[in-house]
Amino acid sequence: MEQNKYDASDIQVLEGLEAVRKRPGMYIGTTDVKGLHHLVWEIVDNSIDEALAGFCSHIEITINKDNSVTVQDNGRGIPVGIHAKTGISTVETVYTVLHAGGKFGGGGYKVSGGLHGVGASVVNALSSRVDVQVKRDGKIYECKFENGGKTVQPLKEIGTCDVNDTGTKVTFKPDATIFDSEIFDYETLRVRSRELAFLNKELRITLTDDRVEPQKQDTFMYEGGIIEYVKYLNKNKTPIHENVIHLEGEEDGVMFEVAMQYNSGYNTDSIYSFVNNINTHDGGTHEEGVRRALTRIINNYARKNGMLKDKDESLTGDDVKEGLTMIISCKHPNPQFEGQTKGRLGNSEVRKLADSVFSEGFERFLLENPDEAKIIVDKAMTASRARVAAKKARELTRRKSDLDVVNFGGKLVDCKEKDPSLCEIFLVEGDSAGGSAIKGRNSMTQAILPLKGKILNVEKARLDKALSNDEIRTIITAFGTGIGNEFDLSKLRYDKIIIMTDADVDGSHIRVLLLTLFYRFFRPIVEAGHVYAAQPPLFRICHGKTRKYVLNEEERDAYLETLPENTRYEIARMKGLGEMDDDELNETTMDINQRVLRKITVQDLVEADAAFSKIMGDEVEPRRKFIEDNAQYVENLDTIG
Ligand code: 0R9
After folding, report:
1. Range of 553's domain?
2. Are residues 390 and 449 in the same domain?
3. How far is C-alpha 512 from the geometric centre of its chain's CA atoms?
4. Looking at ligand 1, which residue's alpha carbon is closest to its atom 18?
5. What SS3 state is found at 149?
6. Mutate to test the pocket of ligand 1, among 131, 168, 205, 207 (most ligand atoms within 8 A of CB)
7. Do 609 and 484 share a structural domain?
8. If residue 628 lies in a helix (H) or strand (E), which one and from where to where?
């Protein structure tokens, strides 16, 4: 990138720091932990700009013992001369005058972006202490502020260093009277530092936590940048072509870059886009350009090579992004962010740039790599066929106005009550337990669906296959909500969905398969707290005329403790659900007055998703390792969230 000579007169004096302290939200969004961490990124952004200008290769972020943060870069150092307009040093000007900085003068070139890009002076205004050190021209300078940006030591020379040793080091302590919390979270800083390293290739970012013994430290540096980001995201997946496809281009100072790789999965939502290192959640012109070009190029290729024979047949945007992991990164000197959360790029000229860079590069890739091209187009063709089949299958499961008993092949034994808030459905492992449950239930409110053996693992099957599975179709129809775009929680026919499986390995496997199904197809039902696991007892203790069922060893021992000495008792270890008779099953597991249910929660969807992919996905090794590491966790998968 071209170097821009810094012109001190570019700095415009706009407002005082007092305004920032009065309304911090206007400058950093919030004063909660998010705002607190935002301070770090405002400072780091300045170092990243220096890196993008080609002068900085290493940024160090340190959380100090007193919860202050130090950010250090090895760039040119902030200019130290006297600023023409303010008559004070440029360093002090940058830190005390709101909106000071190259960007606002128009002459500078600033592409990295914080929330509002107002930088150093805002951090100073919201800090109880800021120390800035600059190494430039063989000298070390220092400048200090306290109490929301009041200068306590104007810039002065404090020593000398090697002429080649240059850089800026800033330490700030957030003002406790402004922020709800002053405690920096290492994990938050680690995740974003890693992301910034992926998005800015070859930039080294070191994060250190000095609050703990021994100190924590992570260093991130990716020579391949977003190429390595894609590899990282596909780590637990199975790529279907070896190399990550990488395309880039530049026009009028706008840089545009894409990395992509298809995997064998069926996700269609792994396209992530960034503008000036900020995630554009809601897409925008850069994403639109790529999506449009991707669909067009794959269709053209398929048609030219005789893969799409029918004139009217074509692949949709969804077909071509199935299993696609993609990072789009755009660096723009003047980005226009739109939408409620400013998560959408609005600059219209970027759509054309994105389209042309992507289509030229991707078309060339397909021509030069016919084997990969075939794999990629085949994948989209299969997705397209699956989409058509799924549509048909979905129509089959769409609930008719009244429950169509024929649909169930006689398997569901429904309850008489029609008010969903009073109804329960038991998903029961095996026909024999199913039989006992049917006899032992309260037929007014309890419906029984016996499941034959293991249900299909939906993590490994595409929608059409899942929907052609009898067991799954029956479940979908019984629930009444529909799936996918048609899902409607208000149509749920049962207030409680109760998974009733044995307390052994097979039982927990079926439970995991059912949870995977719920997680993928019926997540809102889990989120709304409708899903439960029945807890069949492990022991029966008989004494006199009393029969007591307990769930586990601890409960058994605790109960025995309560019996008077010399009491004669008999303990039986309960066998599987299938071996209980209907009275027993009702008494121990189904009767609303006696049973114990465990609510299945999804506390953290993202983590649960990862856990499910690991346990249920393609790769054997991560699954083996995960189960080994989390044997306990997997047994209790229904409580992970
Ligand atoms: C540790 C955090 N780092 C910084 O805040 C930081 C700001 C900065 C910088 C320049 C170099 N390194 C920096 N680190 C810089 C920029 C320019 C010329 N020389 C040095 C330029 O933009 O042309 N500056 C960021 C703003 C300013 N300097 C300026 F406004 F003071 F010029």
Report:
1. 539-573
2. no
3. 22
4. 6
5. coil
6. 168
7. yes
8. helix 620-629
Q: Count of domains in the chain?
A: 4
CATH number at residue 439: 3.40.50.670
The whole-angstrom separation of Cα 190 and Cα 208 is 9
More confident residue, 324 or 515: 324
Q: Whose CA is nearest to atom 20 of ligand 1?
A: 78
Catalytic residues: 429, 502, 504, 506
What's the one-letter identity of residue 39?
A: L
Question: Encoding tokens for residue 295?
Answer: 């669909």
pLDDT tens-place string over residues 338-371: 988 889 999 999 999 999 999 999 999 999 999 9
Structure tokens at 299: 């269709």
Mean pLDDT, range 75-96, rounded to an integer: 92
Residue reference for tokens 């430039």: 136
* Lookup: tokens for 622: 């991560």
Both 593 and 474 in one domain: the answer is yes
pLDDT for the residue numbered 340: 82
Nearest to 281 by CA among 344, 192, 351: 344
The answer to whether position 7 is within a domain reads no
Angle at 513 between CA 512 and CA 514, to 5 degrees: 90
Separation of CA 190 and ligand 1 centre (Å): 24
pLDDT confidence of residue 261: 97
CA distance 562 to 493: 42
Tell me the CB-side half-sphere exposure of residue 207, using CA atoms within 13 A.
20
Between CA 551 and CA 573 the distance in angstroms is: 10
**How far apart are the C-alpha atoms of 271 and 366, rounded to whole Å?**
20
Left (φ > 0), alpha (ψ -120 to 50) or beta: where does 152 sit? alpha
Kindly report, residue by residue over 578-636, the tens digit of the pLDDT: 778 888 889 889 999 888 888 887 653 344 455 566 666 666 666 566 555 544 333 33
CA of 547 to the centre of ligand 1 (A): 78
- Domain with 274 in it: what CATH number? 3.30.230.10
Q: How many whole angstroms separate alpha carbon 609 and alpha carbon 359?
A: 33
Could you tell me the distance, in angstroms and rounded to a whole number, from the CA of residue 207 to the centre of ligand 1? 21
Specify the residue with its C-alpha closest to ligand 1, atom 15.
78
Q: Across all residues in the chain, what is the average pLDDT?
A: 85
Handedness of CA 539, 541, 547, 551 (dihedral sign): negative
User: Are 169 and 204 contained in the same domain?
Assistant: yes
Distance 9 CA to ligand 1 centre (A): 15
Spatial separation of the C-alpha atoms in residues 516 and 292, rounded to whole Å: 33
CB 571 within 8 A of CB 502: no
Residue 127 pLDDT > 70, yes or no? yes
Residue closest to 358 by CA, chosen among 485, 256, 254: 256
Residue 12 lies in a domain: no
Label residue 126 by pLDDT band (50, 70, 90). Answer: very high
Model confidence at 117, pLDDT cuts 50, 70, 90, reads: very low
Cα R_g (the chain), whole angstroms? 31
Which is nearest to 599 in space by CA: 495, 509, 510, 520? 495
* Mean pLDDT across 83-97: 91
